[in-house]
Amino acid sequence: MAKRPGPIAEENPFLRGTDLAPVTALSEKLGLSPGTRYEEQHDTDGEDVSEESQRSGDESEEDEVEVDESVQEEMAKLEDIFEERGLRYRMIDRIGEGTFSTVYKAEDLHYEYYQNDWDIEPKDALKWTSPPFKRRRNGESQSSTTLVDSQSQRRQRQPRYVAIKKIYVTSSPMRIQNELELLHDLRGCKAVCPLITAFRHQDQVVAILPHFRHQDFRMFYRGMTVFDIKIYFRSLFEALAAVHKHGIIHRDIKPTNFLYDIDRQRGVLVDFGLAEREGSDSSHCLCQDHPTSRKTKIESSKARNQPIPTGFPKNDPRPSRRANRAGTRGFRAPEVLLKCTAQTTKIDIWSVGVIMLTILAQRFPFFNSADDIEAMIEIATIFGQQKMRQCAMLHGTMFECTIPTVGKHGFALSQIVHWSSARAPDEGEDPDPEVREAVKFLEQCLELDPRKRMSARAALASDFLAKETLSDTEPEEMDVL
Amino acid sequence: MTSRRVPLSNVPNAANSPFRAVAAAASKRSRDQLEAQEDLSYDYHPHPKRQALEEARTNLRVSPRKQALQSAEGRLFNRRTANAPPTAFERKLLAARGERSQQRVERQEKASNEALDTVRQWQKHYKKSFPGFIFYFESVPEDVRVRCSRWVRSLGAREEKFFSKEVTHVVTSRPIPLDSESRDATDLVTPSSTSTSSQSTAQTRTINPSLLDRQHESFQSKSRFTFEAPVSKRAQLNGIHDVEPRKMNASNTDILYRAKEMGMKTWHMEKLQRIMNTMSNIPNDAQTLAGNNTRSRTANAAGKMDKEADLSRMLRNERLNGPSDRDATIALSELIPFKGSCLYIRDMDERSKPIMVRDYPKPGPNEVGEWPQFHSVSVGKCPFVEEPVTRAELVAREEARRAKERAASREAPRTRAATIREDAEAESARSVPQRRPLEEIKDAGNAPAPPSAAMPIPAFCPPPPATTARPGSPSKAARDAVIPPRPKLFGGEPAASGMQPSNITSAIRSQMISSTAAQPGAKAGTSKEVHGLKRKVLEKNSGPALINIHTRQKSIDPAGNGRAERNIPAARQTRRQAQETLIHIDEESTQSEEEEDVWIAEDVRSKRQQVRKVLEKKDPKPGYCENCREKYDDFDDHIVGRKHRKFALTPENWKDLDQLLSQLGRRLKEPDSDGF
């Protein structure tokens, strides 16, 4: 009971865009409607339910039905808009909801009329379906109907699905423009979800994106081998390398924003709603200084020469430090938490590190981080006082912590990975050299100092990702390019 | 006043009363006091006077600034009039002298080995000589005495309950009289007035904190001779007063004089505390590393350790010596002291507000702190969130205990003494909670595995964090904790997703649902998250109907007649209203169903559910509109509002975006490229 993600998801300010997509994907996968899924849960709870079962059962149904009804209404409204503009999309379902937008799955009824360079599906279909189709390599220029027909084995009615992102009318044009502009800049990056089109109807802006087949991260992250991990992160880092090359910080890297398809071993990065250009709105931070000048500044700083505080000011008239903190809890880099005013693309790398830690530690989410302070404590629990102090000083802040569970040295990531695997003692002692390599790679992602943290390009060039994965993905790349 | 005459010496305002200066400083005597005096016989007369006196004293103990601020801290101190704790001035001096010099010393330690050695030597010396000491505590508050005596005993010394010849050290909180005084004491009526004679000597000796007080006393006693004690002026001059009411012991009967005479050492309470501090502060280091040849390395290590320990020591000092915000080095007006375990991240240059501040309350002896920490959890769970314990009673017990504790702490008077005691308790308990997560897991491991559990799942098992994790221990811990096969899936879905409110134990969950009333969590002390969650559950479950009602009422009855209704127990109201709306909307929805298009046709749900659906649709979605720059209560209402529509229909607002959108059009296929 009470495991309905719905209400909580709605409360979570950081769930945007495709956040809810997994739920739908999951239910699709399980062949159940969400409603039935919830009902099933009550059975697992056994006796606990008894007298309440009926009531709570009703409630969850009620939740679902309510969603359906209102969603239908919303979708009908959207369809009206489409109709007015002569567009034809058949709305299917809501697949995600966030602070700034709702995403629906829809069928692109006029697919055939348009140039669809964005669509990787036919190419993929050619590649992944049985060899006979291979000869239709130039499917793009062929008659679409033939192509569609030829794929009928794959999907039953050859519908072309798109994701329709309805950006709330309460979002400012600036914000919308920012997102669309960045997406437009990134067109052509195969690992970034392309923008098919976007239009405005009065204050309603709608973006049409491809619907990318993917699985819920929670469904697969635990079964991943080191090889799977390599493929996954290769794909993710390819996307990031492209994004970072454009000087864009995604700011919200997390599993739900990287739609990954295990079968195709490919993922696309979505949701650039929080993305920004590197250096926009940034000011000088101590971390940009040369280490020696930074050192002298730290040593001559006011706080450094004061006794360690025994309290904090009650009525503090000073202004608070301002910095962009956009992102998702648990995935924020330490410099974001410390309100560094000169954040770089490296904050995305940290988030990737968190994903990797999640996979290696088989714990999702790895960080709970109800707020920034708890996030900081969680990070400090791993890295320990000493490193945190250094990390804080890097951004001109003093870190004091008397929390007993935050040790002086923290724990090595390898240790954490080791505990979590908690392989039966017989296996446990000597971890896989591959795992060790992965942990080494992880350490470079979860480096507290953003300057020392690996870049996406460096990650792709690293031994961990470059070696065997390349041979595997190369033909695919060729194919796409 | 009555006509009954009070002896002159006992009338506080009499010109020649020894207490005149003091009494003058006191606020006007209250009516109660006057009445009390009326009723009292001569025998009791000294009493109200003393009362007045003490009030004066307490008023004076706090610095004017403090007084003005009327901080809670200040009030705490005021309450403690009984056994004359160190006065504000003493504390200030100590804080200034003792603390600062101590810190300085320790700062320098990092640089110079000699300094460290001196401290070690000093420690050694005291360690050796302590077992021979026999303490007698005089004028020391009971709780402090108990604590000190415990500590003293731990070093091998002994406490004598009664003053006797055996005693080697007298510890007092009163100012220690000088040798010269003890000689003169017999001649003078009150000890305080003796200080005039010792003033000159006092200035040369700076070690004894009581001397510093003495200077002011002498100043004061001087003024006393002029009969016109301009209290306000003195207040301006000194800021802080020390007007200890001397016990009216006729000179040499005072234990302090006696002790002097008998060759005992007299320590001020502060001195003992300082010794305690220093003795325990470079702990073990001195002993373990004493024989180390590589001196410099040890010194460095010790220095570093000091740095680490600084904060905790400061906290302890604060507890002993009072807040150090009187320290001139801290320019900021007032500090909220840290009481438990804290995280404090501040701007290095102090130009901006602290970036992060949080003070977690000290966990009880069997509690884990509220801050995030590693827990052993099964696969798929967040390691920073304690996994729900399957046995409901375990949780219930825990919750009940916590609730009780909370209630107790709310009731408990926040005297300083109480705080100290609590702190001491918490400190002694500090080592315990850290080990606890594991213990609990072991415990949980014994719980019967739910039948639905598929197969044994390895648990995430960090070592007890405080034991600074040797690589050996975790694996052992791991083995211990692997056992419990836990349900990893809830309804075919891993329980820990980003959206899971993970702190909720199953017990709490069931409580939330089972309680029909609107206070599911209120029965147990719940954490912040749980509290927040409880609210959400409410909003989503019982909420919508309720809110719906409110909005309805608003529309029907804007005059606020519905307020009376609001007082009806929420649950009952909901039920009643829901029934009404049920009937009403039922028709609507069925009608619409007939008219509606494909979507509804697909829908094969029961009519009753349809009703609920419509009901909840009206659930208002509050938020913020970036365009109107205002908060709204309901999204749907807002976006059709005049202001918003105006924005929507003003082309200038969309100029830039449109320019971009014009580039984003979907390109039609070339007519010749395919068959269309």
Automatic annotation (TrEMBL), chain A:
This is non-specific serine/threonine protein kinase. InterPro entries: Kinase-like_dom_sf, Prot_kinase_dom, Ser/Thr_kinase_AS. SMART domains: S_TKc (SM00220). One of its GO terms (molecular function) is ATP binding. Coiled coil: none annotated. It comes from Lepraria neglecta. It comes from the Eukaryota. Its EC number is 2.7.11.1.
From TrEMBL, chain B:
Residues 618-667 form the DBF4-type domain. Residues 588-598 have a biased composition (Acidic residues). Residues 190-206 have a biased composition (Low complexity). Keywords: Metal-binding, Zinc, Zinc-finger. GO terms for molecular function: nucleic acid binding; protein serine/threonine kinase activator activity; zinc ion binding. Residues 401-423, 526-535 have a biased composition (Basic and acidic residues). Residues 448-466 have a biased composition (Pro residues). InterPro entries: BRCT_dom_sf, DBF4_BRCT, Regulatory_Dfp1/Him1, Replication_Regulatory_Kinase, Znf_DBF, Znf_DBF_sf. Residues 173-214, 401-501, 513-535, 576-598 are annotated as: Disordered. GO terms for cellular component: Dbf4-dependent protein kinase complex. This is DBF4-type domain-containing protein. It holds the Pfam family DBF4_BRCT. GO terms for biological process: positive regulation of nuclear cell cycle DNA replication; regulation of cell cycle phase transition.
